[in-house]
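Hi Y.,

Following your request, here is the sequence exactly as I used it, all 418 residues.
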Amino acid sequence: MPVPEGSDFPLQNLPYGVFRRAGEPARIGVAIGDHILDLDALQRDGLLEAGGRLPEAVFGRGSLNPFLTLGRSAWQSVRARVTELLEDRNHTVRDLPGLAGRALIEQSEVEMILPVEIGDYVDFYSSLEHASNMGAMLRPDGDPLPPNWRHLPVGYHGRAGSVVVSGTPVVRPWGQTVRDNGPPAFGPSGMLDFELEVGFIAGAPSALGAPVPIEEAPEHIFGCVLVNDWSARDIQRWEYAPLGPFLAKSFVTSISPWVVTLDALGPYFVPGPEQKPPVLEYLRSDRDWAIDLDLEVTLASQAMTEQGLEAEIISNTNLRTLYWSVAQQLAHSTSNGARVRTGDLFASGTVSGPRPGTYGSMIELTWSGERPLVLPDGSHRTWLEDGDTIAMHGVCGPAEGAPAVGFGEVRGAIVPSP
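Below is the corresponding structure, written out as tokens. Let me know if you'd prefer a different format.
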């Protein structure tokens, strides 16, 4: 299967997504170059049974959940079979009468929908640089990190029902805010922000009361997506104490449509930052869990879009700096016996690097509005305005012996409050 040079989706990637063509039901496919390989069509033609029998029409559903519940052995066998079918030396898809026309679909012809049914959504605070920046702004005369931060992955439960797929418009939220020590007022947020994050999707579930040991994380983590955890900083500032974020973050969270599997990310797992002091035993792992994933954020104003100007790159960073790994996040989340359900989303928290230009949010890039960004159309930004579009891209590699593996993008445009 020929793949355009520089594509996010070479044969070594094969991310899973759920797509829908006009007038047809939603079903599961994998991305290959500019195309989607329709796994439902392959299963109906009996081409996916080489690794063991699969439940009937498991790829003809509107979500990945039924497939994810089958566990890691099924994920790996299907991946191996799809790889075999798409290799240059294999002519099965090309030569079976009518199969290529039914099973290979241009991505431009379809609508991508949310890939999983998300039962629970947990958002962490795993970047040392982001946590330090936020602490420095909020507590300029004190320790930027709370005393627990280096001992456990701090997190909170988000709003699963507000998670949307890339391209869904972002409606400016309303909420309570306070200005200049005045009384609370209710109205549209004036401090709308993005947060650059990466999330993992839970595959096989765990039992209630049974913590997931960190070394068993690969049995429960299917893959990763890009996440934009949109935030209303003025609402957050007023409501935050004492229980943390609520309406400031629950209005919408965007994710990319393609789930990149752990197997595809294999060549890009690297040692993470040194953790000082040493973490407790249940958070220790002998394997590398940091991911060498380059991340980019672009911003385009409505005027830039109308004038045909390219979006402005406002941040470049890398996920390998993340202090707490996805495996540690999962182990800690279940350490009290809480269960994991198939399709659960666990987001990293804002990913920021060590210097300006690598920060993963507007509040950091503008240092809470003190240093406005200047866009190519001459406009200034301290916070996001109506008509602005934020897009996030992610790619691993290339590395020695391994091609680049991309995540595609997560994109959202701000629309005015109703």
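The domain at 16-113 is CATH 2.30.30.230 (SH3 type barrels.).

Thanks again,
Q.
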